[in-house]
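Study both lines:
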Amino acid sequence: MNYNLKGNFKDIFRRLIKRDFSGNTGITVKNGIFQFSTTLFGKIGSLFFTAILARLLMPELFGLYSLALSTITIFATFSEVGVDSTLTRFLSWEFGRKEEKRKARDYTIYLGRLKFFLSFISVSVLIISARFISDTYYQKPLFLALIAGALYILAVGAASFLRSILQASNYFKGVLYNEIIFQVVRLIVIPLLILFSLKHLFSNEKVLFFIILGLGISYLASLIFSWFSHRRKFEYLMEEGEKISPSEKRRVNRFIIPAAATVITTIFFGSVDMVMLGRFVLSQYIGYYRAAFTLVAALTSLISFSVVLLPIFSRLKKQQLEIGFKKAVSMTVLSSAVLFLFVFLFAPLLIHIIYGNLYEPAINLLRVFSLILISTPLLSIYISYFAAREKPAIVTKRLIYSLIVNIFLNVIAILLLKNYGDLAMVYGVTGATIISNWFYLFGLIINKKRKFK
Protein backbone atom coordinates (compact mmCIF):
# COMPACT_ATOMS: atom_id res chain seq x y z
CA MET A 1 0.00 0.00 0.00
CA ASN A 2 1.35 3.45 -0.96
CA TYR A 3 1.30 5.59 2.18
CA ASN A 4 1.61 9.17 0.93
CA LEU A 5 0.75 11.99 3.29
CA LYS A 6 -2.48 12.98 1.59
CA GLY A 7 -3.61 9.39 1.53
CA ASN A 8 -2.82 9.01 5.25
CA PHE A 9 -4.97 11.95 6.29
CA LYS A 10 -7.78 10.92 3.94
CA ASP A 11 -7.65 7.43 5.40
CA ILE A 12 -7.82 8.83 8.93
CA PHE A 13 -10.86 11.01 8.19
CA ARG A 14 -12.59 8.18 6.35
CA ARG A 15 -12.08 5.84 9.28
CA LEU A 16 -13.30 8.46 11.74
CA ILE A 17 -16.48 9.11 9.79
CA LYS A 18 -17.21 5.41 9.29
CA ARG A 19 -15.88 4.44 12.73
CA ASP A 20 -13.71 1.87 11.03
CA PHE A 21 -10.80 0.97 13.29
CA SER A 22 -9.96 -2.41 11.82
CA GLY A 23 -6.41 -3.59 11.16
CA ASN A 24 -3.15 -2.04 12.34
CA THR A 25 -3.98 1.29 10.70
CA GLY A 26 -7.31 1.46 12.49
CA ILE A 27 -5.74 0.62 15.83
CA THR A 28 -3.12 3.33 15.29
CA VAL A 29 -5.78 5.92 14.46
CA LYS A 30 -7.97 4.97 17.42
CA ASN A 31 -5.08 4.93 19.87
CA GLY A 32 -3.80 8.25 18.55
CA ILE A 33 -7.20 9.84 19.09
CA PHE A 34 -7.55 8.47 22.62
CA GLN A 35 -4.01 9.49 23.55
CA PHE A 36 -4.46 12.97 22.09
CA SER A 37 -7.77 13.26 23.99
CA THR A 38 -6.04 12.15 27.19
CA THR A 39 -3.32 14.78 26.77
CA LEU A 40 -5.80 17.50 25.86
CA PHE A 41 -8.16 16.63 28.72
CA GLY A 42 -5.24 16.54 31.14
CA LYS A 43 -3.93 19.95 30.06
CA ILE A 44 -7.35 21.59 30.16
CA GLY A 45 -8.13 19.96 33.50
CA SER A 46 -4.79 21.15 34.85
CA LEU A 47 -5.52 24.69 33.69
CA PHE A 48 -8.90 24.72 35.45
CA PHE A 49 -7.35 23.21 38.55
CA THR A 50 -4.51 25.74 38.56
CA ALA A 51 -6.93 28.63 38.08
CA ILE A 52 -9.07 27.48 41.03
CA LEU A 53 -6.01 26.96 43.21
CA ALA A 54 -4.50 30.31 42.26
CA ARG A 55 -7.69 32.15 43.21
CA LEU A 56 -8.17 30.25 46.48
CA LEU A 57 -4.56 30.42 47.63
CA MET A 58 -3.58 33.83 46.21
CA PRO A 59 -0.04 34.50 44.91
CA GLU A 60 2.05 33.78 48.03
CA LEU A 61 0.52 30.44 48.96
CA PHE A 62 0.13 29.44 45.32
CA GLY A 63 3.84 30.07 44.83
CA LEU A 64 4.66 27.86 47.82
CA TYR A 65 2.42 25.10 46.45
CA SER A 66 4.09 25.28 43.02
CA LEU A 67 7.54 25.12 44.60
CA ALA A 68 6.62 22.15 46.80
CA LEU A 69 5.12 20.21 43.90
CA SER A 70 8.09 20.91 41.61
CA THR A 71 10.47 19.65 44.29
CA ILE A 72 8.42 16.50 44.92
CA THR A 73 8.24 15.86 41.17
CA ILE A 74 12.03 15.77 40.98
CA PHE A 75 12.14 13.05 43.62
CA ALA A 76 9.28 11.20 41.91
CA THR A 77 11.34 11.12 38.73
CA PHE A 78 14.02 9.00 40.39
CA SER A 79 11.36 6.46 41.32
CA GLU A 80 10.52 6.00 37.63
CA VAL A 81 13.74 6.52 35.60
CA GLY A 82 12.37 4.90 32.45
CA VAL A 83 10.76 1.87 34.12
CA ASP A 84 7.29 2.69 32.76
CA SER A 85 8.43 3.20 29.16
CA THR A 86 10.49 0.00 29.39
CA LEU A 87 7.47 -1.90 30.70
CA THR A 88 5.35 -0.62 27.80
CA ARG A 89 8.03 -1.62 25.28
CA PHE A 90 8.51 -5.19 26.50
CA LEU A 91 4.87 -5.91 27.30
CA SER A 92 3.83 -4.64 23.86
CA TRP A 93 6.18 -7.18 22.35
CA GLU A 94 4.87 -10.03 24.51
CA PHE A 95 1.21 -9.10 24.01
CA GLY A 96 1.81 -9.02 20.26
CA ARG A 97 2.92 -12.64 20.16
CA LYS A 98 0.58 -15.14 18.56
CA GLU A 99 1.48 -17.62 21.29
CA GLU A 100 0.56 -17.25 24.94
CA LYS A 101 1.89 -14.21 26.79
CA ARG A 102 4.72 -16.33 28.07
CA LYS A 103 6.93 -13.81 29.79
CA ALA A 104 4.65 -10.81 30.18
CA ARG A 105 3.92 -11.66 33.80
CA ASP A 106 7.60 -12.00 34.69
CA TYR A 107 8.61 -8.80 32.91
CA THR A 108 5.90 -7.01 34.89
CA ILE A 109 6.99 -8.51 38.19
CA TYR A 110 10.68 -7.80 37.53
CA LEU A 111 10.07 -4.17 36.59
CA GLY A 112 7.45 -3.80 39.34
CA ARG A 113 9.98 -4.83 41.97
CA LEU A 114 12.53 -2.45 40.50
CA LYS A 115 10.05 0.41 40.59
CA PHE A 116 9.05 -0.38 44.18
CA PHE A 117 12.72 -0.36 45.21
CA LEU A 118 13.36 2.96 43.44
CA SER A 119 10.18 4.45 44.96
CA PHE A 120 11.24 3.35 48.42
CA ILE A 121 14.66 4.97 47.96
CA SER A 122 13.14 8.19 46.57
CA VAL A 123 10.60 8.46 49.39
CA SER A 124 13.25 7.77 52.02
CA VAL A 125 15.61 10.41 50.65
CA LEU A 126 12.77 12.93 50.39
CA ILE A 127 11.69 12.38 54.00
CA ILE A 128 15.27 12.53 55.31
CA SER A 129 16.12 15.70 53.36
CA ALA A 130 12.74 17.47 53.77
CA ARG A 131 13.84 19.58 56.72
CA PHE A 132 17.05 20.69 55.00
CA ILE A 133 15.27 21.54 51.74
CA SER A 134 12.50 23.55 53.39
CA ASP A 135 14.38 25.30 56.18
CA THR A 136 17.96 25.62 54.91
CA TYR A 137 17.81 25.77 51.12
CA TYR A 138 14.41 27.31 50.33
CA GLN A 139 13.87 28.87 53.77
CA LYS A 140 10.13 28.45 53.29
CA PRO A 141 7.41 26.49 55.18
CA LEU A 142 7.40 23.40 52.96
CA PHE A 143 8.37 20.66 55.42
CA LEU A 144 4.93 19.06 55.90
CA ALA A 145 4.15 19.33 52.19
CA LEU A 146 7.35 17.45 51.36
CA ILE A 147 6.44 14.77 53.90
CA ALA A 148 3.02 14.41 52.25
CA GLY A 149 4.95 14.05 49.01
CA ALA A 150 5.85 10.52 50.10
CA LEU A 151 2.25 9.41 49.51
CA TYR A 152 2.19 11.39 46.28
CA ILE A 153 5.28 9.60 44.92
CA LEU A 154 3.93 6.14 45.79
CA ALA A 155 0.48 6.86 44.34
CA VAL A 156 1.81 8.44 41.13
CA GLY A 157 4.26 5.58 40.66
CA ALA A 158 1.64 2.86 41.04
CA ALA A 159 -0.90 4.67 38.85
CA SER A 160 1.63 5.27 36.05
CA PHE A 161 2.76 1.62 36.23
CA LEU A 162 -0.80 0.38 35.63
CA ARG A 163 -1.23 2.98 32.91
CA SER A 164 1.81 1.53 31.12
CA ILE A 165 0.17 -1.91 31.16
CA LEU A 166 -2.98 -0.45 29.60
CA GLN A 167 -0.92 1.28 26.91
CA ALA A 168 0.96 -1.94 26.15
CA SER A 169 -2.44 -3.66 25.83
CA ASN A 170 -3.51 -1.04 23.26
CA TYR A 171 -6.31 -0.04 25.64
CA PHE A 172 -5.94 3.72 25.37
CA LYS A 173 -9.61 4.23 26.16
CA GLY A 174 -8.83 3.02 29.68
CA VAL A 175 -5.99 5.53 29.95
CA LEU A 176 -8.41 8.31 29.01
CA TYR A 177 -10.93 7.15 31.62
CA ASN A 178 -8.21 7.11 34.27
CA GLU A 179 -7.24 10.68 33.40
CA ILE A 180 -10.86 11.78 33.65
CA ILE A 181 -11.24 10.16 37.09
CA PHE A 182 -8.05 11.81 38.33
CA GLN A 183 -9.00 15.27 37.08
CA VAL A 184 -12.56 15.08 38.46
CA VAL A 185 -11.47 13.81 41.89
CA ARG A 186 -8.74 16.43 42.06
CA LEU A 187 -11.13 19.25 41.15
CA ILE A 188 -13.51 18.15 43.92
CA VAL A 189 -11.28 17.00 46.77
CA ILE A 190 -8.52 19.61 46.85
CA PRO A 191 -10.69 22.78 46.78
CA LEU A 192 -12.74 21.27 49.63
CA LEU A 193 -9.55 20.59 51.60
CA ILE A 194 -8.36 24.15 50.99
CA LEU A 195 -11.67 25.67 52.09
CA PHE A 196 -11.64 23.45 55.19
CA SER A 197 -8.07 24.50 56.02
CA LEU A 198 -8.74 28.21 55.49
CA LYS A 199 -11.94 28.06 57.51
CA HIS A 200 -10.06 26.63 60.50
CA LEU A 201 -7.21 29.14 60.05
CA PHE A 202 -4.53 26.51 59.52
CA SER A 203 -0.99 27.72 58.91
CA ASN A 204 0.37 27.90 55.37
CA GLU A 205 2.45 24.81 56.05
CA LYS A 206 -0.60 22.77 57.04
CA VAL A 207 -2.63 24.02 54.07
CA LEU A 208 0.13 22.87 51.73
CA PHE A 209 0.22 19.52 53.52
CA PHE A 210 -3.48 18.95 52.82
CA ILE A 211 -3.13 19.98 49.16
CA ILE A 212 -0.28 17.54 48.45
CA LEU A 213 -2.12 14.87 50.44
CA GLY A 214 -5.20 15.54 48.29
CA LEU A 215 -3.15 15.08 45.13
CA GLY A 216 -1.94 11.72 46.41
CA ILE A 217 -5.52 10.71 47.20
CA SER A 218 -6.59 11.73 43.68
CA TYR A 219 -3.96 9.47 42.14
CA LEU A 220 -5.01 6.66 44.48
CA ALA A 221 -8.60 7.06 43.28
CA SER A 222 -7.38 6.77 39.69
CA LEU A 223 -5.33 3.70 40.65
CA ILE A 224 -8.27 1.95 42.35
CA PHE A 225 -10.56 2.76 39.43
CA SER A 226 -8.00 1.39 36.98
CA TRP A 227 -7.53 -1.85 38.90
CA PHE A 228 -11.20 -2.69 39.30
CA SER A 229 -12.68 -1.34 36.06
CA HIS A 230 -9.93 -2.68 33.78
CA ARG A 231 -9.04 -5.79 35.76
CA ARG A 232 -9.38 -8.03 32.68
CA LYS A 233 -6.28 -6.32 31.34
CA PHE A 234 -4.36 -7.46 34.42
CA GLU A 235 -5.52 -11.09 34.40
CA TYR A 236 -2.26 -12.20 32.80
CA LEU A 237 -0.60 -11.52 36.17
CA MET A 238 -2.47 -14.51 37.56
CA GLU A 239 -1.20 -16.87 34.85
CA GLU A 240 1.85 -19.07 35.04
CA GLY A 241 4.83 -17.29 33.63
CA GLU A 242 8.15 -18.18 32.11
CA LYS A 243 11.05 -16.71 34.01
CA ILE A 244 13.18 -14.23 32.16
CA SER A 245 16.81 -15.24 31.82
CA PRO A 246 19.82 -13.24 33.06
CA SER A 247 20.53 -12.18 29.47
CA GLU A 248 16.96 -10.90 29.13
CA LYS A 249 17.33 -8.98 32.37
CA ARG A 250 20.46 -7.36 31.00
CA ARG A 251 18.53 -6.49 27.83
CA VAL A 252 15.82 -4.84 29.92
CA ASN A 253 18.40 -2.93 31.94
CA ARG A 254 20.15 -1.71 28.78
CA PHE A 255 16.83 -0.35 27.55
CA ILE A 256 16.18 1.43 30.85
CA ILE A 257 19.45 3.38 30.92
CA PRO A 258 18.86 5.67 27.88
CA ALA A 259 15.19 5.98 28.81
CA ALA A 260 16.21 7.02 32.32
CA ALA A 261 18.61 9.64 30.95
CA THR A 262 15.82 11.17 28.87
CA VAL A 263 13.26 11.15 31.70
CA ILE A 264 15.58 12.63 34.31
CA THR A 265 16.93 15.29 31.94
CA THR A 266 13.40 16.27 30.85
CA ILE A 267 12.21 16.70 34.43
CA PHE A 268 15.27 18.73 35.44
CA PHE A 269 14.88 20.82 32.29
CA GLY A 270 11.34 21.67 33.39
CA SER A 271 12.08 22.11 37.10
CA VAL A 272 15.44 23.84 37.40
CA ASP A 273 13.77 27.25 37.08
CA MET A 274 11.56 26.58 40.12
CA VAL A 275 14.48 25.25 42.16
CA MET A 276 16.47 28.41 41.43
CA LEU A 277 13.58 30.79 42.08
CA GLY A 278 12.65 28.97 45.27
CA ARG A 279 16.02 29.79 46.76
CA PHE A 280 16.20 33.48 45.86
CA VAL A 281 12.75 35.09 45.50
CA LEU A 282 9.65 35.55 47.65
CA SER A 283 6.79 33.08 47.26
CA GLN A 284 4.34 35.43 45.53
CA TYR A 285 6.77 36.00 42.66
CA ILE A 286 7.01 32.25 42.18
CA GLY A 287 3.20 32.32 41.99
CA TYR A 288 3.25 34.94 39.19
CA TYR A 289 5.86 32.95 37.29
CA ARG A 290 3.98 29.66 37.62
CA ALA A 291 0.64 31.20 36.66
CA ALA A 292 2.05 32.49 33.36
CA PHE A 293 3.96 29.29 32.60
CA THR A 294 1.01 26.99 33.33
CA LEU A 295 -1.27 28.96 31.02
CA VAL A 296 1.25 28.80 28.17
CA ALA A 297 1.79 25.05 28.72
CA ALA A 298 -1.96 24.42 28.53
CA LEU A 299 -2.33 26.45 25.34
CA THR A 300 0.66 24.69 23.77
CA SER A 301 -1.17 21.36 23.98
CA LEU A 302 -3.82 22.72 21.61
CA ILE A 303 -1.31 22.90 18.76
CA SER A 304 1.04 20.01 19.60
CA PHE A 305 0.33 17.19 17.15
CA SER A 306 3.18 14.84 18.05
CA VAL A 307 0.88 12.13 19.46
CA VAL A 308 -1.06 11.96 16.21
CA LEU A 309 1.90 12.50 13.88
CA LEU A 310 4.27 9.89 15.32
CA PRO A 311 2.23 6.84 14.15
CA ILE A 312 1.88 8.45 10.69
CA PHE A 313 5.57 9.39 10.47
CA SER A 314 6.54 5.85 11.49
CA ARG A 315 4.69 4.41 8.49
CA LEU A 316 6.14 6.75 5.86
CA LYS A 317 9.14 5.99 3.68
CA LYS A 318 12.07 8.42 3.62
CA GLN A 319 10.95 10.73 0.81
CA GLN A 320 7.32 10.68 1.94
CA LEU A 321 8.44 11.28 5.51
CA GLU A 322 10.27 14.44 4.45
CA ILE A 323 7.19 15.71 2.61
CA GLY A 324 4.98 14.94 5.60
CA PHE A 325 7.43 16.57 7.97
CA LYS A 326 7.55 19.81 5.95
CA LYS A 327 3.75 20.00 5.76
CA ALA A 328 3.46 19.37 9.50
CA VAL A 329 6.00 22.12 10.23
CA SER A 330 4.20 24.58 7.95
CA MET A 331 0.85 23.84 9.56
CA THR A 332 2.31 24.16 13.07
CA VAL A 333 4.17 27.42 12.37
CA LEU A 334 0.96 29.01 11.10
CA SER A 335 -1.18 27.91 14.06
CA SER A 336 1.60 28.76 16.54
CA ALA A 337 2.01 32.26 15.12
CA VAL A 338 -1.73 32.93 15.39
CA LEU A 339 -1.84 31.69 18.98
CA PHE A 340 1.30 33.67 19.86
CA LEU A 341 -0.26 36.91 18.61
CA PHE A 342 -3.50 36.18 20.43
CA VAL A 343 -1.76 35.57 23.77
CA PHE A 344 0.59 38.54 23.35
CA LEU A 345 -2.27 40.94 22.60
CA PHE A 346 -4.83 39.62 25.06
CA ALA A 347 -2.51 38.68 27.96
CA PRO A 348 -4.18 41.16 30.38
CA LEU A 349 -7.63 39.74 29.63
CA LEU A 350 -6.45 36.13 30.00
CA ILE A 351 -4.73 36.75 33.34
CA HIS A 352 -7.65 38.69 34.81
CA ILE A 353 -10.26 36.15 33.71
CA ILE A 354 -8.35 33.02 34.71
CA TYR A 355 -6.38 34.11 37.77
CA GLY A 356 -7.84 37.42 38.92
CA ASN A 357 -6.49 40.94 39.50
CA LEU A 358 -3.99 39.84 42.15
CA TYR A 359 -1.92 38.18 39.42
CA GLU A 360 -1.47 41.33 37.34
CA PRO A 361 2.37 41.12 37.51
CA ALA A 362 2.05 37.87 35.52
CA ILE A 363 0.72 39.72 32.44
CA ASN A 364 4.06 40.69 30.96
CA LEU A 365 5.55 37.36 32.04
CA LEU A 366 2.84 35.70 29.96
CA ARG A 367 3.72 37.88 27.00
CA VAL A 368 7.38 36.86 27.24
CA PHE A 369 6.47 33.21 27.73
CA SER A 370 4.28 33.33 24.61
CA LEU A 371 7.47 32.80 22.56
CA ILE A 372 7.36 29.18 23.74
CA LEU A 373 4.06 28.79 21.89
CA ILE A 374 6.14 28.75 18.70
CA SER A 375 9.15 26.69 19.78
CA THR A 376 7.49 23.92 21.83
CA PRO A 377 5.04 22.64 19.17
CA LEU A 378 7.88 22.60 16.65
CA LEU A 379 10.01 20.69 19.14
CA SER A 380 7.32 18.01 19.41
CA ILE A 381 7.36 17.56 15.61
CA TYR A 382 11.15 17.27 15.46
CA ILE A 383 11.13 14.77 18.34
CA SER A 384 8.51 12.69 16.49
CA TYR A 385 10.61 12.90 13.33
CA PHE A 386 13.77 11.59 15.02
CA ALA A 387 11.74 8.84 16.71
CA ALA A 388 10.39 7.79 13.30
CA ARG A 389 13.96 7.73 11.95
CA GLU A 390 14.94 5.62 15.00
CA LYS A 391 17.40 8.26 16.26
CA PRO A 392 16.18 9.01 19.80
CA ALA A 393 19.77 9.39 21.05
CA ILE A 394 20.04 12.66 19.09
CA VAL A 395 17.08 14.06 21.01
CA THR A 396 18.50 12.94 24.35
CA LYS A 397 21.90 14.48 23.61
CA ARG A 398 20.40 17.81 22.58
CA LEU A 399 18.17 17.80 25.64
CA ILE A 400 21.18 17.34 27.92
CA TYR A 401 23.01 20.21 26.21
CA SER A 402 19.93 22.40 26.61
CA LEU A 403 19.68 21.52 30.31
CA ILE A 404 23.29 22.61 30.84
CA VAL A 405 22.59 25.89 29.02
CA ASN A 406 19.43 26.36 31.08
CA ILE A 407 21.24 25.92 34.40
CA PHE A 408 24.08 28.22 33.33
CA LEU A 409 21.70 30.97 32.16
CA ASN A 410 19.60 30.70 35.32
CA VAL A 411 22.64 31.15 37.52
CA ILE A 412 23.90 34.11 35.46
CA ALA A 413 20.47 35.76 35.41
CA ILE A 414 20.03 35.50 39.19
CA LEU A 415 23.57 36.71 39.97
CA LEU A 416 23.28 39.69 37.62
CA LEU A 417 19.73 40.70 38.59
CA LYS A 418 19.78 39.92 42.31
CA ASN A 419 20.28 43.57 43.30
CA TYR A 420 17.36 44.72 41.11
CA GLY A 421 14.67 42.89 43.06
CA ASP A 422 12.64 39.69 42.93
CA LEU A 423 10.62 40.55 39.84
CA ALA A 424 13.81 41.26 37.87
CA MET A 425 15.15 37.80 38.81
CA VAL A 426 11.87 36.22 37.71
CA TYR A 427 12.20 37.92 34.31
CA GLY A 428 15.79 36.70 34.11
CA VAL A 429 14.79 33.09 34.80
CA THR A 430 11.95 33.42 32.29
CA GLY A 431 14.42 34.56 29.66
CA ALA A 432 16.75 31.67 30.52
CA THR A 433 13.90 29.19 30.11
CA ILE A 434 12.92 30.59 26.72
CA ILE A 435 16.49 30.78 25.38
CA SER A 436 17.26 27.20 26.40
CA ASN A 437 13.97 26.03 24.83
CA TRP A 438 14.87 27.67 21.51
CA PHE A 439 18.45 26.37 21.84
CA TYR A 440 16.98 22.86 22.08
CA LEU A 441 14.91 23.46 18.93
CA PHE A 442 17.78 24.92 16.88
CA GLY A 443 19.98 22.02 17.96
CA LEU A 444 17.50 19.52 16.53
CA ILE A 445 17.12 21.59 13.34
CA ILE A 446 20.91 21.55 12.84
CA ASN A 447 21.09 17.81 13.52
CA LYS A 448 18.37 17.10 10.99
CA LYS A 449 20.17 19.07 8.30
CA ARG A 450 23.44 17.29 9.03
CA LYS A 451 22.09 13.74 9.37
CA PHE A 452 19.26 13.74 6.84
CA LYS A 453 20.09 16.06 3.94
Remarks:
- DSSP finds 15 helices and no strands in the chain.
- The first helix runs from residue 5 to 18.
